[in-house]
Amino acid sequence: MKKTGAWLVRYGLEQVGVRFTFGIPGVHNTEIYDELNKSEQITPVLVTHEAGGAFMAEALGRVSDSIGALVIVPAAGAAYASAGIGEAYLDGIPLLVISGGTRTDVPYRYQLHEMDQLSMMSAMTKRTYKVEHHNQIVPTIFEAYQTAVQGEPGPVFLEVPVNIQLFTGEVGELPVFNQRKPSYDVDLQKIQEAAELLSRAKKPGIFLGWGAKECSEVMEQIAEHLNAPVSTTLQGLSVFPANHRLHTGMSFGPSSVPAAENAFKDCDCMLAVGTRFGEICTGSFGVSVPEKLIHVDINPRVFHANFPATIAIESDAKPAMEALAKELSSRSKPVNDRDNIALQIGRDKADYFAEW
């Protein structure tokens, strides 16, 4: 069959579950916007600036089950959107960036917005793509989506030249998207070692980042089993209920609130999940991380980067923490020095509130 590239872009976006796109129509993406206008699933949101559109799309990727998507013009649009794209890259937020591109079927140079976008975007995306044929569009969108959402999530960039959008090309049978869900083999030996360290600790503590967002319930179970205070990163504020008696706030060092600083003052074993121990959440690296650190993250590059880990567990947070909760529950409730920690946290919070 023959389809325009713009039609194929719409089909691909619909298949991966996109519900909203953000951006501004222009010379190099009008055909895509014409197709989005026909979609019963996708609502294109017109923005006044690509930077704002990028942050809107990034926000959607944070809080919904639909990936955020940008549809922008090349060069200027990509440059303006780079603030939000870069934020998604730094924060691990899935994002699809669909950009138009200059014509590839003419012999002329110095076209409007002609530049090497892939080089520009490569430093702030997980991967960049440029399609050269119609039959590449749908498979590339599928691959781009999988790249964006798997492992440590992030943005991907796809350039579709305007001539491919505009003209029809031969494509075979249209594929149907079937999301590949990677399985992560949890190292049960390390889980047992982590449970042993936490059970023996006198003052255990838990530090959670955005990577722990899918395991809030099991983290409550672990915190209550250990009677351990819980702090989060700034981005991970939502991963643990703020009204929980063991929740202390953001960070745990001198730059944190008294409830957190006091609760973690003599922490002798820390369970850190889905955090990179970056500058903001550590108060410019001013925290004291105990020697016994159990670090769980899907990205192995974060281990030992800023603070050495006694046990490093490379895994998606949810299966790892479910395995840890199961291991801990099979053991006797630990006897530690945390009996009154919830009362202490409550008093510190009340005093701080009264002071303000």
How would you sum up the major sheet?
6 strands, parallel
Q: Provide the structure class.
A: alpha/beta
Number of strands: 14
**What is the CA-based Rg, rounded?**
24 Å
Q: How much of the residues is beta strand, in percent?
A: 15-25%
Order of helices and strands: EHEHEHEHEHEHEHEHEHEEHEEEHH
| Tally of helical segments | 12
Strand order of the largest sheet: 3-2-4-5-7-6
The span between the termini is: 68 Å
Q: Helix coverage percent of residues?
A: 25-40%
Shape: elongated
| Mean of pLDDT | 95
Low-confidence stretches at least 5 residues in length (pLDDT < 50)?
Answer: none
Keywords for this structure?
356 residues; alpha/beta; six-stranded parallel β-sheet; 14 strands; 37% helix
Description:
There is one protein chain. With 356 residues, this protein is α/β, with parallel strands linked by helices. The protein contains twelve helices and 14 strands.
Task: Chart the SSEs and their pairings.
Layout: E1 2-4, H1 5-15, E2 20-23, H2 30-36, E3 43-46, H3 50-63, E4 68-72, H4 76-91, E5 95-101, H5 117-122, E6 127-130, H6 137-149, E7 155-161, H7 162-166, E8 168-170, H8 188-200, E9 204-208, H9 216-226, E10 230-232, E11 247-250, H10 258-263, E12 269-273, E13 293-297, E14 311-314, H11 317-329, H12 341-355
Parallel strand pairs: 2-3, 2-4, 4-5, 5-7, 6-7, 9-10, 9-12, 10-11, 12-13, 13-14
Antiparallel strand pairs: 1-8
Quick overview:
Strand 9, helix 9 (216-226) and strand 10 (230-232) form a beta-alpha-beta unit. By secondary structure, the protein is an alpha/beta fold.
